[in-house]
Amino acid sequence: MSEPILELTGLTKVYPGGLRALDNxxxxxxxxEIFALLGPNGAGKTTLIGAVCGMVTPxxxxxxxxxxxxxxxxxxxxxxxxxxPQELATDMxxxxxxxVAFSRGLFGLPPNPERIEEILRxxxxxxxxxxxxxxxxxxxxxxxxxxxxxxxxPDLLFLDEPTAGVDVELRKGMWQLIDEMRGRGVTVIxxxxxxxxxxxMADRVGVIRNGRLLMVDEKAKxxxxxxxxxxxxxxxxxxxxxxPALAHFPIEIEQDGLGLCxxxxxxxxxxxxxxxxxxKALTGAGIDYVGIDVRxxxxxxxxxxxxxxxxxxxxxxxxxxAV
Length: 323
Known about the structure:
- It comes from Qipengyuania benthica.
- This is ABC transporter ATP-binding protein.
- Keywords: ATP-binding, Nucleotide-binding, Transport.
- With 323 residues, the chain is of the alpha/beta class.
- The chain folds into two domains: 4-224, Rossmann fold; 228-296, 2-Layer Sandwich (Alpha-Beta Plaits).
- The chain has helices at 45-52, 74-78, 96-106, 113-122, 138-150, 168-183, 195-201, 219-226, 270-284, 299-307, 317-322, and strands at 4-14, 20-30, 34-38, 60-65, 68-69, 81-84, 156-160, 187-191, 204-209, 212-218, 229-235, 251-254, 259-264, 289-296.
């Protein structure tokens, strides 16, 4: 069984005025995993990160990291935690290399130019090492934030919207970098509004809304438990009503009788088997069809079912078209 390195128990944060940003959150993060925390804006993702990283004081509950209770032994735990914040505010007038080296020194570590060079090269920042941060593009500035977070070689790394505002190519490059960090034994917790990001990288996924953790599960198990199969069948002739031979299938007529829509299964392959049986039943009933389109639920489909369409974090239309 994997070793837990972060344990949140009953974590609650209520701000003056009554806003409950975190509501009795229980969560255990295991060593070496990539955990994605998803939820709409204002769900509590950044507050949770802030509580672990010492920027937000919880109203109640406990946080244990690497066996340390953060309320009593914060410094020992914090030096093993890295944070890539969502905001780009940083020491804009500093050259890249100096800013990253300074971040290492903040954690009491001795200078290590070789390690700083290694980090900058891994993020394609070495050629920009002597440029001021203010002169860099938005994507490069975000890479600097990651470099600063890695400078003290943390064992647990928080990434708050790590690829927001960067182009598709850079986003995929960061995915590869995160996977490499996991390969070196770093545990990664990321918040993201790109559901494809969680689908691509995460071992486990948590869904949070209004400060409450609604669901936590392994990605594959979540998709198996909540996934569905959807099939659209184009008919050769219009159908006025579903015949008795097909009545036991979860289907409905669409496209003014020229199509059938199947929705069923459970994410384990049952849906595909039922679609195959449905096509045989159509043939047996003498009903011709001219096309069939079958798709399995994505992680985004599952979030729509859990959160509702309006609350699902997703890319903007422009970003989708860019992909």
